[in-house]
Specification:
Layout (H helix, E strand, L loop, with lengths): L6 H4 L16 H15 L2 H10 L3 H23 L4 H20 L4 H18 L7 H19 L1 H6 L4 H26 L3 E3 L3 E5 H20 L7 H29 L14 H21 L5
Antiparallel strand pairs: 1-2
Length: 298
């Protein structure tokens, strides 16, 4: 027998002592979060643009190396929490590997051997808990290559002819791919891309992201006047856009493994720096490799 009361009135009373269910975020709270993200990023934009287009080359070097060190510290702190010595060692190793990539590429093999030595020493200096010593050694070896080897390609792009435009292209490939994937997924998403790792991502969103990346490449051609043939722009957009999405999934995997929601909290409303550059690391490195070895842009 039904009554005239709403379902909410007939819902069972929660047991005494039970925690109340979290309330759904309101539109007001979402607007507040968006405003916080915008306000925290706004002061950085003119600084980055000035360094990119008008500042001295050494200034952009410094900016990139500081960014690499900060992202590396986030990664090491996330994967080796509480290990201060190893976090510092991993951060220094990352900055050193990035310096080799920029200034002494002929010595990359020796740099990789050096990372192996760092990982060995670090695992022996801090063996406890012994069950996770292998994982820590792996991060001391792989972390510098992941962050130092990929993110520093932003600096390598800046050193090419039309360098600032190449950097903007790498940023556009990451940003437009992410934005287009979000809206395409919202509008058309039906088939999960990798539900266990990222439940909200869909195949349709991923395809939309690839189209967005191609759009970023066309922006570079027709707005920034970057001399890239149209077929190469399409190829670069698809490859870099796909790898950028893979970079985003990889970072999600790292955070799941570490049991954290964000890689850090340095940027209010944005999470950590690694959360912001996970796709850029792959779009920048892909763009540099394509520009140098396919388009011969050096």
């Amino acid at each position: 027998m039904t009554t005239g009361r709403d379902d909410a009135d007939t819902a069972p009373t929660p047991p005494a002592g039970a925690e109340p269910a979290p309330s759904a975020p309101t539109s007001k709270s979402k607007l507040g979060s968006t405003a916080l993200r915008f306000a925290s990023a706004l002061p950085l934009i003119p600084v980055i643009l000035w360094l990119l287009f008008y500042g001295p080359r050494w200034g952009f070097h410094v900016f990139c190396f500081v960014a690499v060190a900060m992202v590396a510290r986030e990664l090491m702190a996330m994967t080796m929490p509480g290990q201060r010595v190893l976090i510092a060692l991993g951060t220094l190793a990352t900055a050193g590997f990035a310096a080799v990539v920029v200034f002494a590429q002929a010595q990359l093999f020796l740099a990789v051997l050096g990372l192996g030595f760092v990982a060995l020493v670090g695992s022996l200096l801090r063996p406890d808990p012994i069950e996770s010593s292998g994982a820590r050694a792996g991060w001391l070896f792989g972390g510098p290559i992941y962050v130092g080897g990929l993110l520093i390609t932003v600096d390598l792009l800046h050193g090419l002819p039309y360098g600032a435009r190449w950097v903007v292209l790498a940023m556009m490939l990451a940003f437009l791919s992410d934005t287009a994937a979000y809206f395409a997924g919202r509008a058309f998403g039906k088939h999960k891309l990798y539900e266990k790792l990222s439940p909200k991502k869909t195949v349709e969103g991923s395809l939309g992201g690839l189209l967005g990346a191609v759009g970023g490449a066309f922006f570079a051609i027709y707005v920034m006047r970057l001399p890239i043939p149209v077929p190469h722009a399409i190829a670069l957009g698809v490859v870099a856009g796909g790898l950028g999405q893979a970079g985003d999934l990889l970072e999600s995997l790292l955070k799941r493994s570490a049991g954290v929601k964000d890689s850090g909290n340095i940027l209010p409303g944005h999470g950590g720096l690694l959360d912001r550059v996970d796709a850029l690391m792959f779009t920048a490195s892909t763009t540099w490799l394509y520009a140098v070895y396919v388009l011969d842009a050096r």
